[in-house]
Amino acid sequence: MLDDPFENLIRAPRRRATRRRVATFVQSAEDRPYPGPSEHMLLQDLRTYSLPYGRGSNDGFDVIIEPAESELTQLIHDALPSTSYRHWRIADSIRDFVDSALWRLIDGDLHLEVQYYHALDNPDGEPVAFGIKILDAERIMRHRGRYCYIVADSDRFEGPRTWRAEELDPRCLVNASLPRTLRRDLERALSLIRLSDRDINIASSFVMGNHGNNSGFDFAAHRRMSNDIVLKGTRTIGWAGRGLLTEGLLDPEKAWRAISFGRFAARLRDVAIDALNESISRAGARLDFAASLTLSRVPTRADFDQMERDLQAGKRPISQLLVPWLSDGEPDAEPQDVDAGATDEKL
């Protein structure tokens, strides 16, 4: 495990907004209901489609920080949020961030906070480092026209939690939302998927119960009907349920849905990366640096649009279009700029 880069630094504290009180309305992330099987599959598939996987030492994509200075790259790498532990490679840190960001964007908005760190011997001086924290949306509230964050003083296993509200500096807060049409398509698809999960769970419990054995209820036919409804309802995002929903469809239709879902995942990924770049930009204004982070060797919306045209024209093998998120690059291949157009081998 890597050392904490902020071990010998002190974080600038937030300002307390209210006195301590016991709160019962805050639901922590670990207490949220676990998603149903289909919803969980959708979330996992978004992770797979948003960033390609490589082979061996090849990450499947490259992270480019401009300007390419080692100290600046390390500063940004140290600042990237992680769910459990820090990563050796910046590509792993970016994948960790995108995974977490997608989960937030599925539920609603993505909220990032830029946190600044000062030297121990000069806590009132200018910051020397920064970190980016992903905030839980359910703990953000508006208090007297200001954003506040609900923070627990104790672990959830230590009895009733004591909570306090801390003010969030708007200059340090980055909020990212999905475009309205994308949010609408996602919510419609999620609503159907969640209803299907509950419906299948009820039907399965009935079949396994005392009254289901001799009822004549055809669970397989009921599941096929439910899958057909979800298949139609998820057309705008292209999700195929790993083939469970598209059984019986022809390969061109399956490829079209794979391309559509890849485009959908790429749009979510871009929202997350744009928010990350905005956080880096705000930190740079405070720490006096200018930098940007981009990804190469990742399929873009333009790439998926080209795949769809190739599918319609029959210019690309169907087998390749069925898995458009995979990276077939060699481990030692030179990074390629997707702005110049991804090659067939990279898609």
Q: Specify the overall morphology.
A: globular
| Low-pLDDT windows of residues | 327-347
What level of helicity do the residues show?
Answer: 40-55%
Main sheet properties: 4 strands, antiparallel
Rg, Cα atoms, Å:
23 Å
Q: Which percent band covers the strand fraction?
A: 15-25%
Task: Output mean pLDDT.
Answer: 84
What are the secondary-structure elements, in order, as H or E?
EEHEHHEEEEEEHHHEHH
- Count of extended strands: 10
Could you walk me through the main structural features you see in this protein, from its secondary elements to its overall organization?
It is a single chain. This protein is an alpha+beta fold and 347 residues long. The chain contains 8 helices and 10 strands. It has helices at residues 37-50, 70-79, 90-107, 180-208, 219-233, 251-287, 301-313, 318-321, and strands at residues 9-11, 21-22, 62-66, 110-119, 129-135, 140-143, 146-152, 162-167, 173-176, 292-296. Strands 1, 4, 5 and 9 form a 4-stranded antiparallel sheet that branches. Strands 2-8-7-6 form a 4-stranded antiparallel sheet, with no helix packed on it. Helix 1 (37-50) packs across helix 3 (90-107), helix 3 (90-107) packs across helix 6 and helix 6 packs antiparallel against helix 7. The two termini are 34 Å apart.
Question: Layout of helices and strands, plus pairs?
Answer:
Layout: E1 9-11, E2 21-22, H1 37-50, E3 62-66, H2 70-79, H3 90-107, E4 110-119, E5 129-135, E6 140-143, E7 146-152, E8 162-167, E9 173-176, H4 180-208, H5 219-233, H6 251-287, E10 292-296, H7 301-313, H8 318-321
Antiparallel strand pairs: 1-4, 2-8, 3-10, 4-5, 4-9, 6-7, 7-8
Helix pairs in contact: 1-3, 1-6, 3-6, 4-5, 6-7
